[in-house]
Amino acid sequence: MYKASVFSYLIIHKPQDMALDYIIWNKENVSASTVNKRIVIVLKSIITHYNLDSNFSKVMQFKKMKELGLSYGTIENNILRKILKYTLSLPDNKRNGLMKKTAVVLLTYTGVRMNELINIEVKNIDFEKRELLLTTTKNGKARKTYIHDDAISILKKAVDDAIGKRRKLLLWNNTFNKPMTQKAVTYFIESLKIKFNLDKLHPHMFRHYFGTTLLDNGVNIKVVQELMDHKNLSTTQKYLHVNDRKKKELYLNNFKI
């Protein structure tokens, strides 16, 4: 935002201007919820650091931005089946085919977050116990998830590939010979959105599908909370949206007089 000399001058002599510019930049570059958090942080920090009263007239004019409700859009079953069928048909050795398969299968069958996905280590996959240890998690605590029958064959191929090439990480960008990044996985998911002419498709929607499917099929919400690593049960409850067709089916089959 500023050259070093100008930045040094402003931080010493014009903290209000610094705060103002910082908030404006955030409004243009990050989400409303993030802006709101940072407005509070920057005000507290500057006021405390400079021992000022809270009469920051220009900065205080920034009211909190309206935060849109989170969209918990998921993927329709028929679309997911098409995505899996297409992805699993890709050649293993062309354009990271095996890695694309592995990423989509793990997103679908474990509901892992993107950062958890790209940091899975080969040593933490136990086929005998059907367990997968995630060590890079949102809350910093390692947790176990489980390996579904439909994920085993692809996962074993990926593990063999990693062991054969003496890699620590499961996912690897063979094209550039470096660890797979969130950006690379997102790029592939974006290509699937285009291929299947979808309005939206992003990696986190696989996680939504995972949670919603478990709840729709009667899995206890506390179990789903643990599998998804939600700190609060209220987060898991947001996945309790039952589609209209299923609501009608449940009503017609279960309401008896």
UniProtKB/TrEMBL annotation:
Occurrences of domain Tyr recombinase (ranges): 68-252
UniProtKB keywords: DNA recombination, DNA-binding
Gene Ontology process terms (BP): DNA integration; DNA recombination
Xref: PANTHER family: INTEGRASE_RECOMBINASE PROTEIN MJ0367-RELATED, PHAGE INTEGRASE-RELATED
Lineage of source species: Bacteria, Bacillati, Mycoplasmatota, Mollicutes, Acholeplasmatales
Alphabetized Pfam families for the sequence: Phage_integrase
Name of the protein this chain belongs to: Predicted integrase
Originating species: Alteracholeplasma palmae (strain ATCC 49389 / J233)
Entry-linked InterPro entries: DNA_brk_join_enz, Integrase-like_cat_sf, Integrase_catalytic, Tyrosine_recombinase_XerCD
A molecular function (GO) term: DNA binding
PROSITE patterns: TYR_RECOMBINASE (PS51898)
Family: Belongs to the 'phage' integrase family.
